[in-house]
From TrEMBL:
Its main location: other. Belongs to the bacterial solute-binding protein 1 family. Pfam families: SBP_bac_1. It comes from the Bacteria. One of its GO terms (cellular component) is cell envelope. Keywords: Signal, Transport. This is Carbohydrate ABC transporter substrate-binding protein, CUT1 family. It is found in: Cell envelope.
Length: 452
């Protein structure tokens, strides 16, 4: 279903400038060669009819379709865009921010990343109200708006980014491998251990593929564990309401460690990245389960020229939540929030044009094109793909958007960049056997104490 037209949404109508699109072309999830030079492009003070965009998401192929849709309606506008792998994007953004060449529109995550660049971003409430009316907030999933202001200083109610896509973080199963082994997606920790044992005996595929090299993935798995043990406690620690050495948080570090000491994760997990290696293994059928998130449905994007057999209409996959833990919450907790948000540079040459592009991509024609590719879940309600390629794809989409996303209570992000890094480092230490769970918690508390 397409969203109804939004009040005041800018329409086509610019005249007098040659149409054009500058988009770095490369394989999906591969950084664009040479694009990190701030002198080459993305100068926020440049051509007023050109909008520069840098991000790691949406993927290059999807971003191209969004740009095409906007520029077909506005043929005198150029959108200069580069999509990076996430680590390369972070480096590029830091480089541009320090050199005064911030892109007009930037991809952001809430909390740590947005706060790092907050002083270089313009507030977006007026942009939103001019486009969608004074009740514009009612169009968004509440968790997205809540996270968009995560980490703002006391008294600062501005939105420096607006959510483009939202998501749950969860687990995915290769349903073909599980069915063949007679295993259901595990609902409890004991189920998980039993499933790993059965799947390990059944074949050569990794029962539980954990790409633990990535700091972001370590943190989102930990947040699922921590909230399943004691919902909300970990955020109380970040806010200083309880210590990081609280028994339940230490226990969460312990359960993370058990993924390695009890043989649930594969050998060498700390050397495996999520993208491209982990997901390539999963899509090739070499793993039965993997922790990712709602965005995995993008593998079934019908606009792709080639789709792996397991991803065709999501035929080979099943999403499930991280298993419950002994003595913890009786039901698995939903963790998630913003996948990617968009901000506008305070130095944008034409902030009105940047606003027009940003709002179109969130909930206009560009937004519809974006959602048609199943890139992730829409930040606004009522926006669904115009076509499904299988009943299973539609069933999974409805599960993610109707059953899970409206009930997400716990954030997949930390507010503080320092805590975000400290937790990821502590988890790596536990996984490597260099830190006990108690020592890991103490290391995060030490960072907390330094912040005052």
């Amino acid at each position: 279903m397409t969203l109804p037209p939004m009040a005041g949404r800018p329409r086509a109508g610019r005249r007098g400038i040659q149409a054009g699109i500058a988009l770095c072309v490369g394989a999906t999830l591969v950084a664009c060669a040479g694009s990190a030079d701030p002198e080459e492009s993305a100068d926020g003070g440049g051509d007023a009819q050109t909008v520069s965009f840098r991000s790691w998401s949406p993927i290059e192929q999807t971003t191209r379709q969004m740009i095409d849709t906007f520029t077909e309606a506005n043929p005198d506008v150029t959108i200069d865009s580069t999509i990076f792998n996430y680590p390369e994007y972070i480096v590029d953004l830091q480089t541009r921010a320090s050199s005064g060449t911030m892109p007009d529109i930037v991809g952001l995550q809430p909390g740590a990343l947005t706060q790092q660049y907050r002083e270089k971003l313009m507030p977006l409430e007026q942009c939103a109200a001019d486009t969608w009316g004074d009740d514009w907030e009612s169009r968004f999933h509440p968790v997205g708006l809540e996270q968009a202001r995560m980490g703002n200083p006391d008294g600062d109610e501005h939105y420096y980014a607006l959510p483009l896509l939202v998501q749950t973080v969860n687990l995915w199963a290769n349903s073909e491998l599980l069915d063949a082994a007679g295993v259901e997606p595990p609902a409890t920790w004991d189920d998980l251990k039993a499933a790993v044992a059965t799947l390990g005996d059944a074949g050569e595929a990794a029962p539980f593929l954990l790409p633990a090299k990535d700091a972001w993935l370590r943190n989102v798995v930990f947040l699922q564990i921590a909230n399943n043990l004691e919902p909300g406690r970990v955020y109380q620690a970040e806010n200083g309401e309880v210590a990081w050495t609280d028994a339940r948080i230490v226990e969460a570090f312990d359960y993370w460690g058990k993924l390695f000491t009890e043989g649930i994760a594969q050998d060498g997990a700390l050397a495996l990245d999520s993208y491209p290696n982990g997901v390539n293994q999963f899509e090739a059928g070499n793993a039965a389960m993997i922790p990712l998130g709602a965005w995995w449905i993008q593998q079934s994007d019908p606009s792709k020229t080639e789709i792996a057999p397991l991803s065709e209409g999501m035929s080979g996959y099943e999403p499930f939540l991280f298993p419950t833990l002994p003595g913890g919450a009786p039901e698995s907790q939903l963790v998630g929030g913003i996948d990617v948000a968009l901000g506008i540079s305070a130095d944008a040459a034409n902030p009105d044009l940047a606003c027009e592009v940003l709002t179109d991509w969130i909930a206009g024609d560009g937004g519809q094109v974006l959602i048609n590719t199943f890139n992730d879940l829409p930040a606004v309600t009522g926006l669904d793909p115009e076509e499904f390629t299988s009943d299973k794809q539609e069933q999974i989409w409805n599960q993610l958007t109707q059953d899970w996303m409206p009930n997400v209570q716990w954030s997949r992000y930390f507010e503080s960049p320092e805590i975000d890094t400290a937790v990821a480092d502590a988890l790596a230490g536990v996984a490597a056997g260099q830190l006990t769970p108690q020592q890991a918690a103490e290391s995060v508390q030490a960072v907390q104490d330094q912040q005052g």
